[in-house]
Amino acid sequence: MSLPKSIFQPRRTPQQLCQYTLSRRQTQRPQARQFSRSSAVAASSVAGAAEAEVQAARKYCSNLLLKYDRPSYTLSTFIPRNAQTFYIALRALNVSLSMIPDTTSSHTIGLMRLQFWRDTVAKTLAGSPPKEPIAILLASAISGLDARTQGRARISKGWLNRMINAREQTLTNDPYTDIAALESYAESTYSTLLYLTLSALPMTSVTADHVASHIGKAAGIAAVLRGLPLVAFPAAVSQRPDQAGTGMMAGGAKQGAVMLPLDVMAQAGVKEEDVFRLGAEAPGLRDAVFTVATRASDHLITVQQMLSNLNAGQDVGHEFEHEGEEGHQYDVRDLFKEQRNETPLEEVNRAFGVFMPAIATRLWLDRLESVDFDIFRPELLRSDWKLPWKAYISFQRKKLL
Fold it and tell me: Where is it localised (predicted)?
């Protein structure tokens, strides 16, 4: 059965479909985000790095994405040119964070590595990055952003630290208590990646942030599902290209775990010991995967409806639940000159390249459905050859296919 582009057609009873109800409350007009007040990096010097050093750092980060996060490498071409350096550095940072469990021998060393990245972020934002490729490239990108915006745009230290802090959970394979906790993790990692990329355009729009939130949650939930076999059987699955950035969040942990929300496992009757013993044939496992995957699909359906509303000249249809949180306080006085006359639809279209992870996520969810939610099928770990042209068509049409 082929999968329609707007919603899953489950192979189970319709009652299993996890409904994601949109509220229809009126949204406020898009306003500009107040950027964090972290220190700007001086544009006159790329934090002390020579041009050759920056180019070497860019090559290092690009190779890291090419090897461990192929979708992000592929989708980098859709990011506006003036923000591509920041995008590559940020995604390389995400890969490095996701690989910490695989490259450390103990929980304590893992915590030390996370602290190293907190310190690195602080030094980089202060204009004195350590001699580390990701930090050098990040500092170069921030320097360019500072020059382009005359110091008005800032990259949020709070958001970068939120990404780092969220990764602590992957060091110990702590289970998600419920699907809301899983969504919170996705918001703190994958949605935050998109917020930061929008900041580098720069884009200050509640509508763009709102779209990014739903796409990031879908991508984050799919990443956890994709990493489930790697976490459950860490010694049995070898690392493949594009795993680190899209789901290999605790693949090298010594102790296996089933990283599904506990409430979903209980409802489906999944027992962790059954998964360890029977793998894909564990009772209830496919039902549980189906429920979680449907929540990711629901977020993409929500985005499609939001874009449809915008194209019809309406508001997006419901309020942004994270407005007012750190980084999401909006003030018209901080509006950038080039954005003052943009409609919400024009803002979303200008930032459309940032939203391309929705295409990669939809393609993977379609593949998961095609194997009847057997999360252990090896083809789910491979790159999708359809991603480049699907993303290109979507970008040209400004429509998430």
Answer: Mitochondrion inner membrane
Average confidence score pLDDT of the chain: 84
Report how far Cα 249 is from the mean position of its chain's Cα atoms.
12
What are the pLDDT digits (tens) for 260-274? 999 999 999 999 999
Q: Give the range among 11-15, 93-97, 310-314 with minimum mean pLDDT.
A: 11-15
Token digits of residue 125:
């934002």
Who's near 228: CB < 8 A, 6+ residues apart?
Answer: 258, 259, 260, 289, 375
The answer to whether the CB of 75 falls within 8 A of the CB of 197 is no
Q: Please compute the mean of the pLDDT values over residues 81-85 and round it to a whole number.
A: 96
CA torsion sign, 33 to 36 to 37 to 38? negative
C-alpha closest to that of 252 among 260, 243, 242: 243
Sorted by sequence, the CB contacts under 8 Å of residue 247 that are 6+ apart come out as 222, 223, 224, 225, 226, 227, 230
- Superfamily of domain covering 14-397: Farnesyl Diphosphate Synthase (1.10.600.10)
| 3-class SS letters over 86-113 | HHHHHHHHHHHHHCHHHHCCCHHHHHHH
The reported pLDDT for the residue numbered 254 is 56
pLDDT value for 331? 65
CA dihedral sign of residues 107, 109, 115, 120: negative
Residue 76: CA count within 13 A, CB half-sphere: 22
Token pair of 297 as six digits: 């699909």
Paired tokens of 44: 């006159």
- Predicted confidence (pLDDT) per residue in 174-204, tens digit: 889 999 999 999 999 999 999 999 999 999 8
